[in-house]
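cache lookup: miss for this entity combination. No prior model stored, computing from scratch. Input as submitted by user K.M.:
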Amino acid sequence: DIQMTQSPSSLFASVGDRVAVTCRASQSITNYLNWYQQKPGKAPKLLIYGASTLQSGVPSRFSGSGSGTDFTLTISSLEPEDIATYYCQQSFSALWTFGRGTKVEIK
Amino acid sequence: QVQLQESGPGLVKPSETLSLTCTVSGASMSDFSCNWIRQSAGKGLEWIGRVSSTGTTHHNPSLKSRVTMSVDASKNQFFLKFSSLTAADTAVYFCARAFMVRGVIGFDYWGQGMLVTVSS
């Protein structure tokens, strides 16, 4: 199985801050990496696919970068509605796996 | 508007079989890939497997022996059966549609999730 490791597991930031969440794969997954946002009691929502392509309707303050084993989700200016847990997911192997999540909270 | 809705029992006894249904609306069933994903505090998000509108299935190898997936395209419904349940299978169960763009596969539409508790 390809293991997906996210860091940090949680972070506190202020509204307007630039926030970065990282995801590392246990082997190269080229760009087969997606990011999701999940709010309490809700299903995950697709933000970015293919490491850097913004899903339709997602605000442009979200961006993704990386390839191979190291990936980053960046929120350029944190908004109160961005408080959520963020997950990465790989589709490189036949067994699709997720990271354990990064919880973003307001300072 | 594509919508997915899970239904089934919220409480199942240990050793019994869970049966869940995912009903799809607002989407064509042709080429529809329904994925079952669960989320628990212990294991986080775990992909269980997928079933296409033609009935082709792919399983998570670690769960394959206990999982059966099927489809009734005429009713826009997909089904999950999960046998020999234990408390470790307590989780929120989601169905989600998979899409593929340039080889990348992600989940763009999700059901609201169904909490399933395994307890006597």
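stored under new cache key. The interface with chain A takes residues 44-47, 58, 60-61, 94, 96, 101-108, 110-113 of chain B (CB under 8 Å).
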